[in-house]
Each structure stands twice: as structure tokens, then as C-alpha cells.
Amino acid sequence: TKTGELKYMLKKFICCKKGFIGCSDSYKDSKVVIIGAPMDLTVSFRPGARMGPSKIREVSYGLEEFSMYSMDSLNNKSYYDAGDLELPLGNVIESMKTIKEASNCILENGKIPFFIGGEHLISLPVIEAVSQKYKDLVVIHFDAHADLRKDFMGEKYSHATVMRRVAELIGGKNIYQFGIRSSTEDELHYARENTNFYPFSFMGHIKEVFKELKQKPIYVSLDIDVVDPAYAPGTGTPEPGGCTAAEILEVTLLLGDLNIVGMDLVEVSPMFDLSERTSLLAAKVIREMLIRMG
Amino acid sequence: TKTGELKYMLKKFICCKKGFIGCSDSYKDSKVVIIGAPMDLTVSFRPGARMGPSKIREVSYGLEEFSMYSMDSLNNKSYYDAGDLELPLGNVIESMKTIKEASNCILENGKIPFFIGGEHLISLPVIEAVSQKYKDLVVIHFDAHADLRKDFMGEKYSHATVMRRVAELIGGKNIYQFGIRSSTEDELHYARENTNFYPFSFMGHIKEVFKELKQKPIYVSLDIDVVDPAYAPGTGTPEPGGCTAAEILEVTLLLGDLNIVGMDLVEVSPMFDLSERTSLLAAKVIREMLIRMG
Amino acid sequence: TKTGELKYMLKKFICCKKGFIGCSDSYKDSKVVIIGAPMDLTVSFRPGARMGPSKIREVSYGLEEFSMYSMDSLNNKSYYDAGDLELPLGNVIESMKTIKEASNCILENGKIPFFIGGEHLISLPVIEAVSQKYKDLVVIHFDAHADLRKDFMGEKYSHATVMRRVAELIGGKNIYQFGIRSSTEDELHYARENTNFYPFSFMGHIKEVFKELKQKPIYVSLDIDVVDPAYAPGTGTPEPGGCTAAEILEVTLLLGDLNIVGMDLVEVSPMFDLSERTSLLAAKVIREMLIRMG
Amino acid sequence: TKTGELKYMLKKFICCKKGFIGCSDSYKDSKVVIIGAPMDLTVSFRPGARMGPSKIREVSYGLEEFSMYSMDSLNNKSYYDAGDLELPLGNVIESMKTIKEASNCILENGKIPFFIGGEHLISLPVIEAVSQKYKDLVVIHFDAHADLRKDFMGEKYSHATVMRRVAELIGGKNIYQFGIRSSTEDELHYARENTNFYPFSFMGHIKEVFKELKQKPIYVSLDIDVVDPAYAPGTGTPEPGGCTAAEILEVTLLLGDLNIVGMDLVEVSPMFDLSERTSLLAAKVIREMLIRMG
Amino acid sequence: TKTGELKYMLKKFICCKKGFIGCSDSYKDSKVVIIGAPMDLTVSFRPGARMGPSKIREVSYGLEEFSMYSMDSLNNKSYYDAGDLELPLGNVIESMKTIKEASNCILENGKIPFFIGGEHLISLPVIEAVSQKYKDLVVIHFDAHADLRKDFMGEKYSHATVMRRVAELIGGKNIYQFGIRSSTEDELHYARENTNFYPFSFMGHIKEVFKELKQKPIYVSLDIDVVDPAYAPGTGTPEPGGCTAAEILEVTLLLGDLNIVGMDLVEVSPMFDLSERTSLLAAKVIREMLIRMG
Amino acid sequence: TKTGELKYMLKKFICCKKGFIGCSDSYKDSKVVIIGAPMDLTVSFRPGARMGPSKIREVSYGLEEFSMYSMDSLNNKSYYDAGDLELPLGNVIESMKTIKEASNCILENGKIPFFIGGEHLISLPVIEAVSQKYKDLVVIHFDAHADLRKDFMGEKYSHATVMRRVAELIGGKNIYQFGIRSSTEDELHYARENTNFYPFSFMGHIKEVFKELKQKPIYVSLDIDVVDPAYAPGTGTPEPGGCTAAEILEVTLLLGDLNIVGMDLVEVSPMFDLSERTSLLAAKVIREMLIRMG
Ligand SMILES: [Mn+2]
Ligand SMILES: [Mn+2]
Ligand SMILES: [Mn+2]
Ligand SMILES: [Mn+2]
Ligand SMILES: [Mn+2]
Ligand SMILES: [Mn+2]
Ligand SMILES: [Mn+2]
Ligand SMILES: [Mn+2]
Ligand SMILES: [Mn+2]
Ligand SMILES: [Mn+2]
Ligand SMILES: [Mn+2]
Ligand SMILES: [Mn+2]
Asked: How many CB atoms lie within 10 A of CB F94?
């Protein structure tokens, strides 16, 4: 119709910035599905991670689609940005249920889920879903904190207990923890006895460790606070003494050799990120991972 | 002992700023008990109200103890600041249970509870406790929002449903709502049929309404967003078009004629309050109310 | 297909927040078209208005779709949000050309354009397009500044000259200026001799003036700095001494009686708006106008 | 010389923004002398007023030189901006001595001093100097605080004692205090017995009071916190409940009928003024006063 | 009594966050005494260090009590947090006198003083007191600035002269300065001739130097600006080019071998620390030092 | 005259902070001329660089005039700060014309131009002028971005195309690019074939490269975003993964061996620089370069 044509004309002037930069319009043809989980119910120090997914998408347009790191472009990849999950405010159990159902849906469609948090607890239902599909799943966990508490203030489900719950699910020996520099004494004992634990500076170990993991299905859970607050101030529980932005970007190159079947990037909290460099770093990490996974 | 004396000497140099300005060291002899409820689990737009109680206490030292409004001083009053409740992060039901138990404790001791939020949902357990002690309790509700939803995103307990739950508890006819300028159509119908509803500009009505309430036990629930965001920007769901700071201070004078048996001031969110004027206004309102109630 | 079904399942969890709250998916069936013009090239004091459209959309979800002011809801209206125009950075002439072409496209489709700025200069190409369709067009201009300079630093096209250019186009007698409290001496003389000029406090005049305009096609150009910086700090050239948020909301009710054939809201600059109340006020004004126009 | 000429050529491209907007290059021919006193040593709640003078000058270029309020322009006036005094950090007595000497210098030259603070204590040495020249000096004091303490934390010289010191100097009956809404009980008693005291809302009284003062030499001391924190958040001890920006601008018109022989504007603290509207309001007040005094 | 019991019940719900995390209730049994000196009178560039002590305490609850760095916990240590000194605003001499008296009191009680600034000048009275008790005291000074001026703007006592005064007190040869990267030419000459001077990058020297100091009583004075502004932006005179957060944490391990008899951490200025990472780093350094010293 | 003398007396109290710290009053006798180009018309992600020059001057007073890096002082150098160019808002072509004319004027006077941006496009007219004087000019370019696009959104002149334009002017072989970590695929191909390209970490290469350049006239163009956003957050298009502040300061030492005939430092955007450390780093780099060049 005439109106249809005119509408098409209007579109010609429009700059469309919906979803992560370079994302495909077609869910069906995409290999990776980005999805936001804007939950920050159990964050202990400073809330605000719920605003992470939308801010990361927004600033992604400040980057190029081409990466000088990997010499490849998002334009050669196919991924869909599904937007944010609608999570009931104040209800942790129901929120996790929704996250798991969405994960199952993506996995059943034969696609790789890439969750953007939100707080770290969102990883648990995603890993539950992924581990049901991939029986010998390995979780690679980057974080300043061990997240291995038995419970937190009486609560079983918390961003401080999430890796303990994952350990109960897939076994501590299938968890590789990098960059941890804060824990309780109990968590430290648990880590030493149960998980593969690479605390503090980890760049020296990572290549060798990754070699052993090449045959395994891998889930990557990246808490942005593994990076030093100088490079990633916008997070709920910043912990001075972490790695640099350049180092976490180098990590993405090393992850490229692995068989990644799911990923999340969590705990970006835009309110403490006036310069937006935390969101930009997160977006750049996601760009690199999409080029490897897409 | 010698050490005791020396310790005493150290104290002489110290400026003690614990608790709300002018608060008593003695719980036993106090008439009003201030208590913080740092919960912000169901806040819909922007979290951060959990930091309200500690910020309001901090800035209270920027005020005088003497009030030119009431020509009286906090020094002539007796109130205790119990600090903040320890609430389990992510667990709404358990948090409300703790708030109710603390309220009961204060009431059983024959004291008046003065809660500082946190989000508006904290009012529900306090009003539950107060209404069990005072059978014909009237709730005076200042807010930009009706807070009368049946549920919010499927959740029964939310800062958007709190007054509906209160209405179910004490009857809508015992609720007086002032300053409401935002609601759903359903909430508006409910308010018109059930509560005493004074939307938008309310200063013209308030004197007459208060006259009728002089014989009743009164609970005051003051959502800081009833004030215009120009005067109170630091809140989770700011709604342009509210009253001025001077008007809400005038309200405190009018409340002085009533028999107030409990109160809360909620939804102060310091992260959006660079100039600290929202916290200062809250502290000033609390000072005036303590002078009336203490 | 199976994949199609599964995609449908994923959608069920998603909370879609694209475009202004409540906007329709159908351009064809919509009466009003919202469109962003993210240009801030000629802003004289502080840049940043380019971020206005996306921020206003984002915060619009902090409002209800139902309005207690007009007792009606966005749900009963039909408007389309076309997104932001793609404007060449640094090129004023080309940007204005794109804005005019987009305006023409909307007008030719029989729809009402509602532009969100961006700086005030964007109004010129929109008014050019609208005035070509409606020969006796009247422009109602709300602003702290007269915007009537002959040129600014040698430039003909500027946010400080926009109403002079409009006057040259449709005649000063068809321009009604409200709230002006800053001008050069030349601008003041020009205004007094050419336009309908209601400087400073204008609420007392507006009803009577609007009565005369009921038969005319009206374009409304609202520079957010007409509101006092206390209520609208997030703007490029704040000018203390303006109207309140409540007053500008009352203006939207009065505008409801007129035949509005185009509108813009300009100069919202989110970087100076930590509490987001400027964007929220803009979104609320837009909500009210959509209810009247939609 | 050739170089001289070329230098002149360079100047042609330069936009000179030194000193307050529109200030004269000639000290000799100027009637009013603006001078900054960047001291914030005794500020009790939040420091930062030292940055007031330079910020106010900077934002003054965001205003027009012409005023629609007074229908006159800074271009028709002659005032010199001497820059900021160099004050020894940490030394109150020495700082006050420097301020007094600079005041004397300006007065001996037959010019009117216009000080920009800095904290309110800077008014004392200026008033000392002015009162030595004008024997029956009257001080008009706008402030949220009485500033009438006998001492503050043991200190005689403080921004909380400044008007008590002035009262000891020129007699309380020569002080007119407007807008006070915070004091100790002692200060209030002192004010009632000694000064002309117009607390809280003062616009209703001011015209009549000013009538009596037409024959007197007047010094105006304007603490920006007399304005409500909504309009002037950038100050050290904000006190909710003050006047509006429009009201303080109206005050400048009324002051135009008086014989002003000295003035200060104090307590602007840019760090709490993200939107810069406090500095802009201060600059606008100064513009209006310069038009009246210049 | 009944009331006493009920009060006890209330306490059960309360989360007590007074003082630095993990501090003891008993002054008598504590080994280290934390005390705040909220003075910022002589800060040259940007004030605000007075808010350092309270902010550092507040954010300390964002850390764990257990340290993975030292494999020990604050729970095994005993230290008391005395709160902040009450210092007369604007009076440097009186403030230093109070700080010295408080230091003497702590030392006479056989305890180790740990001062939190405030500006660097506060170190002088503490070192005076400590050096009277320990005759061969060595001061280890971490700073971006030499702080060795003879006077500053005519003032003998200033944060820019503090180490010169200390040198006059205990001899320059007993001062070890690390990380200095800013000085006047005079200061540099003075340092080279008088103190042990390790400018710029110092990690390579520190182990060896510390070996020589094992037999000595040591006072540590840590100006947070020794750390690069990327890691510690919240300070009054940031100087780009400093050490990392990880390096200053490593320093705390090395200090563990020394006999520390007093310490201060100064110049944290929260107003320039939106992300709170400067305060968090300060709190983490204090945690590590308490574990070594407690 | 008497008045003249008194004026002199006033000056004695004044602290003059006009221009960059230590700048000379005499254009004629100066070797280097600092000049601000406050243009930010083509900045793609976040505007605000126009405020760079005035902020950098302001914070320069937070540094010492003496440099411990170069063991020399600004006091021994002679440079003039001409202030900011007056550029027509919104007109790129006219702005570049003004910049070129000012550059010519400085060069014709036998002085070295040192431009402070503003956005990177300002380098083009300066380099045009300098390359006309020095025929075999070499440009050393530090940046996170290649700035080698053929055009940007259809525009030939943009901060994203500036080095492509420079290459067309002086030949790509005369351009040395350091630190680039973001480009399109086309830019990368262009760089590899045309310019001397040292992407990512460059400290290892720089000494050797500079050796070859000792005989050449050198223009240095330093985009502050070459430094990691942790150290320089205040910029328009931050790109995580850059060099440290210490490294860029080391670069200034290495540049000291070259024959620098012109320089610019661009893209400092103060609005995203709450802690002011980006401006401080820029000022420190300028101090070091002035010591080398002056
Ligand atoms: Mn985690
Ligand atoms: Mn973590
Ligand atoms: Mn509410
Ligand atoms: Mn509300
Ligand atoms: Mn305008
Ligand atoms: Mn305007
Ligand atoms: Mn005052
Ligand atoms: Mn005051
Ligand atoms: Mn120091
Ligand atoms: Mn220092
Ligand atoms: Mn560049
Ligand atoms: Mn760049």
C-alpha cells in the first residue's frame, strides 16, 4: 500500500539502536542468544545491577563492530538479542524459575545462551539448564569473591552462595575459579578442598589450565568485579586489587579455543559508573566473546 | 581502675554522632523509638532506599536540635535510636516478619515506633502490629502514588500494593490519602470507593480533615515522593508535580494536634540525592515529628 | 515451525521496553508519530541534548500509562515511536534537511509529528514542513529564552535564532511566546513589535489567549528550560526563575482544547540530570499530550 | 613592531572570558569592584565554598548581559573584577586581615566592594571596613540561619557567629535579618531582643521595611542558603523550606531603591551543584545588583 | 526488669554497624585504637578530607573480616574504634593540640594509635606524641608529595609542610619516604640531603629497606595519594603516575615484619570518589594493618 | 595618580590564576603559545570536549611548576597562554578556518603552537599550517582509535577521519601511530599499507622508532583516549585496554629528544571526569612537554 511505502521512507532516516550492537533481527538463524536478567535482589553492599543489561546495550554503540583483537567483525556473526526478562520484583524463587525456563527454551532451540546480569545469582538457574543438556559441564568462574558460602544471612540463594549451589549441582571439581581475592575462612577451606582454585593474579596459570579443558563443554561465568575497581568501578561489591582491563580482554582470546556452550556476564551496576567505562568494558568483552562464539 | 579513667579522658575529645541527632542513650526512658528498615526489594524503578536510614541519621547533624517552627528543642524530648534491623537480603516475607516482631517489641514496651525506610512495603508489618494494639487505628498516608494495586507483577507484597493490604487490614474508610497524583485506573476506582482520597494539592483540605481525627489513634505513613522531585529528588519513583518542602513542614505542625501512635518515613534513596537535600528534608520532618511526639 | 513456536515461548518471558511507554507496534494505524532528533550542534553553553530522546523513552517506564490529570490512559490512544533520526555529526544543514524530509513523510501519511530533541534548532525544519501543509499555522512557543536573534556568532541557524527564522517563515504575529525571561535588547524589541509576547509568569494569561486560537492549526514548541531549573535542571542553558512542574502539567490540560497538528519538546540534556527528574517531567508532559492528541 | 601586530591578529580569534561577564578592563573608571574571597575554613557541615567565586564567574557567561527584569544591560555599567584574594590556607585571622585590607583599598579608591564568597565569615572584615567609612551603616542580611551564636565550638570567628560579631560592631538595631528558619534557642532570643528579625517567608514584609531604609547607607549580605535547596542545592548547610529563585530575583529589584555601599554573596559551594543552577542563580543575582549599583 | 528483657529482644533484630568492621566494644582489652581526625583546614586544592573517617568506616562493611592476603581474620584481633575527635572548625593550632592530647591518652594506656584523616597535617601531633614515647622512632612515609616545604603561603603548619616539621622533630635521617613524584625544587634538595628518599616506583627497594628497620619502633604515615588516581581518585591533590592498589596491599604484607607503634592513613576525600573505591581501598589497607598490628 | 597607586595595592592581595600555570604575560618573548580550541561538533559518542581547555587550565594549579620527572621547572621556560579561540557553534568548516588562521599567526611569529582540544578534528587545520612551514613534517599520533575513516556518516571532516585527511596532506609514511586498539576493517587495511602503525602496547617500540626521527620536524597529536579509561575516564569515546598514566608520562621524556614544532592534546571531556584526574593528567603531560619545548 501507499502507507506501507511511506513508512519505508521514514525508516530510511532512522538509526536503529535496539539490542546489542550488530545483533541479528532473526532469532531463528542466530547461533547465540543474548538475554538480560535485570535482578538485583540479593546484592549485599550496593544495589543497581538490574540496570546493567540496558546500559551495556546502550554503550555497545560506542564500540566498533570490527575487533582489532581477533581480526574479525560482529558483522560476520549471527546472534539475537532477546531483550530483558520480566522478573517479579522481590521474588527470588520465581525470578530464578523464569530464568531457567528461558534458558531451557534457548537450549532446546539449539542455541547458546548469553546472559547479562543483574546480580550473580542469575547464573544458578542458567547453569542448571545448561548442565541438564551437557552432562560433563565445566564452569569457569571469574570473580573477586569465592561466592561459596553455605548460606548468607540465612538465605540459601544469594549472590554470595551461587557457586556453592553450582558446586552441589555439578561437583566442585568441575568448577575453575580465577581471580578470587575475598572470602570467608569457610569458603576458602571449601574452595581448597573442592574446586580448582586460582586466587589473586591468575594470568600465569590460565593457558595451562585451559589446555586440559579443550574437550569439555564449558560454561563461563564472569563477575565483572574480578577486574580491579580502577577499571570496573560500576559494580555492587568492588574489591581493590584485581586484574586490568587489558588482561580480561586477553582472557577472551584464550577462551576462544574452548567449546563454550553458555555464558554470563554479571554484576555491572551503572549507578557507580559515571564514566561508563565498566559498561564499555563489559560490552567489549561481550563483543569479543560473540566473535568467538557466534 | 586507672585504665578506666584514661579511657574517660579519651572520650572527652570525641564527638559522638551515633544515631539520629539528639537521641537518648536510654531505651528504657524514651517515649519514641527510631528504627531503620533498610529494605528495597520491591522498588520498581530505581533501587537504593536501603541506604535511607543511615544517610538520614548522618545528615541530621547538619540541623539544629532547636526548631524555630515549633519553638521547642529535641533536647527536651526523649527518644531512642535503635539502629537498623538486620533483614535477610532477597527475602520479602522474612523481612516483613522481622519488622513486625520488632514493632511488637517496641509497642509492648509502651513506646511509639518511628520507622525509617527503606521502601514503602515496610509500613505493612508495622501497621499490622500497631493496629493490633489500637483497634480503631486511622492511617494517614502521604504519597505521590496510591499504592493500592491488587498485586504488582504477580506479587501480593510490593511497595505498589502496600496500602491495598493496609485497607484489607483496617478498612479503606480508616485510610486518608493525601497528595496522590499517580495511579492505575483500577487504583483510582478503588480509592474513590474505599478510602478518603485527597489527590493532587492537599493543603486546602488537611486542616478540616484533621479536625475529625482528633479522638482517634493515628498512624502516619509518609512516602517522601509526595514532595515534588525538585525538593526531594532522592527517591525511587519520582513523580513531578508534588508539594513543596515548606508545605510538608507545615503538615508536621498540623499533625501535632493528633494522637500519633506510630509513624514511618519511607522511600528516601540517597544515590539520587547528590546535594543531600532529600535526606535533609526527611531529617527535618523527623525532627519536627519527634518534637511533637517525644 | 517448531523453532517458531519455541521463539514464541521465549517472548513470553520478555519485558519489551522499546520506544515510549505504551507505543503501538503499527505505524499504519497510529495517529501520532514520535521521533527523536538527537542533534546538539549549536547549543551555546553545555552540550548533551542529543541524549534527550533515548533517556526520555527510558524513564517513561517509570510512569503509569493512566493519567489522573486527564482521567484517560495511553492504552486508549494510538501512537508510533519511530526511534531516532540518523543525523550526520557536525553538519547542521544536512541534519535539518533530514529532519524536514522525515517530517514531510509523517505529514504525507496523515499523521501528527511529535519530535523529541535534541536542541531547539530542530524545530525549524519541522515547522517548515508543517506550515507547508497548514497555511495559517500558529506556533505556541514555551521557553526561558526568546530565541529571536538575527544570527548567533555569525551563524544564521542556531538554537538562539530558531524563532526568528520561524517568524520569517510564518510571520511573527502567528507566534505566541510564553515564559521568556532572557533575551538581548534587540530580541526584546523584535518580540514586542512582531510576536505575541507573554514574558515571565504566564499562567494568568494563557487561558484567554488559547480561547482565540481554537479555530487555528497549532504547532507547540516546548523548550524544557521554560520550567525553573529546580524542576528541570537537565538542560543546556538553565535560567533561574521559571515556572513549576505542576504549572507546565496544567498547561498540557489547557492545550487539550486546541487543534494541535505538530509538536516538539526540546533541550532535555540528561548529563545534568542526576535525579532524572527533567527527563521524567518531559516524559510526563509527552504522556499528557499524547492522551490529548492520540 | 611586526610581532606586536601579529599578536594583535591572534587576539582577533580569541574569546576572552576572564572575570565576571561584561566586566571592565579599567579599575580606575569602575564604580563597583568584584572580588572573590575563596575561604571555607569554618564551614560546619560540608566544605567547598572556596570554589564559589571562580565557578560563578565561569557560569556568568551562560547569561545574557541584558536583563529583562531591569530593562538595562551590564554594557551600560562599569565594574571591575579584581579576581580572587590569596588567602593563607588554615589561618582564619590572617585571612580576615587580608580581606579587610583589600576592602579598605577599594573603599579608599571611592568604589563599592562586591565580595563573592567563600563562607559567610568573610562578611565580617568587609563590614568592618565599610562601617568605618559609613558611620550609620545598616546591614541587610538574607540567610536561612541566624548566624548569631556567641561562639561556635569555642571559636569566636565562624560562619555561625558572623552576624553576632557584626551586631557587636554596628549594633543589632542596624541589622535586618530576612528568611531565617534555623537557629539555636539562644540565637532566637538574641535576635528578638536585638535585631530586626523577619524569619521564614519574608516577601510580604520587605517592601515596607525597605521604605524606612531609603536614607541610610546599606550593606547587603546574601547567604545563598536563604533560597530553598531545590533552587540552590550547592551550599554547605542547606536548610529545606526557603524562598524561590523568582523571589530572590524580585528582591534584587526592591534593593534597587536603596543606597547600597557594599555587598557580598556567600556560601555557594559548587561541588554539590551538578546542574550548576546555584552558581547560575548567584550570577544572575549579581548581574541584577550590578545593574542597580553600577 | 521486664523492660530490660524486652529491650534485649529488640537488640536481637538489630544489625550493629558502629565503628570499623569487627571492632571491639572494649577499649580496655584492645591493643590498637582507631580514631578519626576529621580536619581539612590546610588542604590546598580540594577540601573534603574531613569526611574520610566516617566514610571509611561505612564502607568497611563491604569487606570480609577474613583476609585471604594474610590468612587471618579481624575476629582474632582486638582493636577499639573511638570515633571521631571533635575539632574546632577553623582553628589549626587548637585542633593539633586536641589530636596530641588524644594520642598521649592512647599511648599512656599502652595502646597503639591508628589515626584516620583528615588531611596530612594531623600526622604531626600524633608523631610528636609517639616520638616522646619511643626515642628512636622511624617514620615511614608513603605519599605522592614530599610534604617538605618550609612553609606554605606563609603558614608553618600545613599538609604541605608536615614532613618538614617531622624532620625537625625526629631528624630527617629517621624518615623514609616512598613514592614521591611531586615536589618543589627546594623540597627535592632537602629530601636528598636529609631524608631517605625513594621517589617514583618504590616496590623494588622496599624489601631491602625494611630489613634495616626491623629493630626500630616504626610509625607509618600513609597518604592515600601515593596510589595512582585511577585506583584512589578520592583525594584532595591527586597526582597521576602512582602505584596500583595491588601494590599498596603488598606493602601491608611487608610492613607486617616491622614493629609498628603508631600509624595514620590520611587524605581520603569521599566527595571525589563516586564509586567509593578509594574508601574501600583505605578500609582494606586498614584491615590488613589491623591484622598485622592487632 | 593616587588611584593608580591604590590599584597597585589591591593587586598585592590577589592570586592570579589566568592561563596555564606558570605562563608568561608576554606573547612577544614566549617560545610556545598555548591556545584552546573548544570545538566538539563531530564527537560521535559523548559531547563535552569543548570544556577541555578551560578545565585543564583550572586544574593545572593543582600541580607544581617544578617537575621531578625532568628536574626542571616551568619557571625557567617561556610560554604564553592565548586563551580560547572563538569558534562559531555548529559550523565545522568555519571553525577549522579560524584554527588554521590562528596557527598561521603563531607560526609566522616564529613560535610553536600548542593546541588544547576540543575534539580531534582540530588537529587537521593546525597540521595544515605547520606542514606548510615544515615541508618534511612527521606526525606522531597517540590514540586508541585509528581515525583513518574515509568519511563518517557521510561527512569528510570528523574526529574519526582526521588522520586520513592528514595522510592525504603529508603522506601516510610520515605518520606514526601508537596505541591504536580500535578501528574498522578498512582503517586497519589502510594503516597497514600506508602509515607506520604500532597498535596496542607500544612502549617496547617507541625508543627505537624515535631514534629514526631525530632529524625531522615533529608534530605530536595526543588523543587522551590512548590512555586507559581507568586513568583517563573523561573523554568522549573511551576504549578499555590502554596504557597507564605513568607510561604516557614516560613518553613525554622520550619526546624530549625530538625537534617538536607543534603539538596538540585533544579529547579531554570534563563532564565524565568527576575526580578531575583526566584533566590533571593532561595538565601534567602539558607541563612536561612545555619543559621540553619551552
Ligand atoms: Mn560473584
Ligand atoms: Mn564478586
Ligand atoms: Mn508509596
Ligand atoms: Mn510513592
Ligand atoms: Mn529555546
Ligand atoms: Mn531556552
Ligand atoms: Mn550565613
Ligand atoms: Mn546560612
Ligand atoms: Mn601528604
Ligand atoms: Mn600527598
Ligand atoms: Mn582521535
Ligand atoms: Mn580516540
From this structure: 14
Whole-angstrom distance, CA of residue B223 vs CA of residue B242: 12
- Establish how many alpha carbons lie within 13 A of residue C108's alpha carbon, considering only the half-sphere containing its beta carbon: 16
- ipTM of the predicted structure? 0.96
CATH superfamily name and code, F30-293: Ureohydrolase domain (3.40.800.10)
Confidence of residue A8 (pLDDT cuts 50, 70, 90): low
* Burial category of E159 from C-beta neighbours within 10 Å (exposed 0-12, middle 13-18, buried 19 and up): buried
Half-sphere exposure of C220 (CA within 13 A, CB side): 26
Instruction: Walk along chain E (294 residues) and give the pLDDT tens digit of each residue.
Output: 444 555 556 777 787 778 999 999 899 999 999 999 999 999 888 889 999 999 999 999 999 999 999 999 999 999 999 999 999 999 999 999 999 999 999 999 999 999 999 999 999 999 999 999 999 999 999 999 999 999 998 999 999 999 999 999 999 999 999 999 999 999 999 999 999 999 999 999 999 999 999 999 999 999 999 999 999 999 999 999 999 999 999 999 999 999 999 999 999 999 999 999 999 999 999 999 999 998
Distance D257 CA to ligand 7 centre (A): 24
Query: C48 and F44 in contact by Cβ < 8 A?
Result: no
Q: Mutate which of A63, A265, A277, A285 to test chain F, going by most F C-beta atoms within 10 A?
A: A277
Which of these CATH numbers, 3.10.450.50, 3.30.70.330, 3.90.1150.10, 3.40.800.10, describes E26-293? 3.40.800.10
Q: Tell me how far apart the alpha carbons of residues C164 and C162 are, in angstroms, rounded to a whole number.
A: 5
Tens of pLDDT, residues F170-224: 999 999 999 999 999 999 999 999 999 999 999 999 999 999 999 999 999 999 9
Q: Which residues of D touch E47 (CB under 8 A)?
A: 40, 47-48, 50
pLDDT at residue A165, rounded to an integer: 98
Tell me, in angstroms, the distance from the centre of ligand 3 to residue B153's CA: 16
Spatial separation of the C-alpha atoms in residues A163 and A172, rounded to whole Å: 9
Q: Give me the amino acid identity at C197.
A: F
Interface mutation vs chain B, best among D43, D44, D45, D279, most B CBs within 10 Å: D45
Residue of chain B whose Cα is closest to the Cα of D276 = B275
Residue of chain F whose Cα is closest to the Cα of D11 = F82
Where do the domains of chain E lie?
Answer: 26-293
Identify residues of C whose CB sits under 8 angstroms from chain B CBs.
61-64, 66, 68-69, 73, 228, 230-231, 244-246, 249, 274-277, 280-281, 284
Residue A2 reports pLDDT greater than 60: no
User: Measured in angstroms, how far is the CA atom of residue C268 from the centroid of ligand 5?
Assistant: 11
CB contact under 8 A, B228 and D228: no
Q: Do E15 and B102 make contact, defined as CB atoms within 8 angstroms?
A: no
Evaluate whether E258 touches E210 at the Cβ level (below 8 Å): yes
Residue ranges of chain C whose CB lies within 8 Å of a chain D CB = 44-46, 180-185, 188, 199-201, 228-231, 233-234, 237-242, 272-274
Q: What's the average model confidence in pLDDT over F90-102?
A: 96
D85: β partners:
F14
CB distance D184–B281 less than 8 Å?
Answer: no
Please give all residues whose CB falls under 5 A of ion ligand 4, grouped by chain where several chains appear.
B 143-145, 223, 225
Cis previous bond, B118, omega within 30: yes
Closest approach of chain F CAs to the CA of C105, in angstroms?
22
Can you give the three-state secondary structure of F150-217, one letter per residue?
Answer: CCECCECCCCCCHHHHHHHHHCHHHEEEECCCECCHHHHHHHHHHCEEECCCCHHHHHHHHHHCCCCE
In this structure, CATH architecture of domain C29-293: 3-Layer(aba) Sandwich (3.40)
CA max distance for chain C: 71
Strand partners for B217: B259
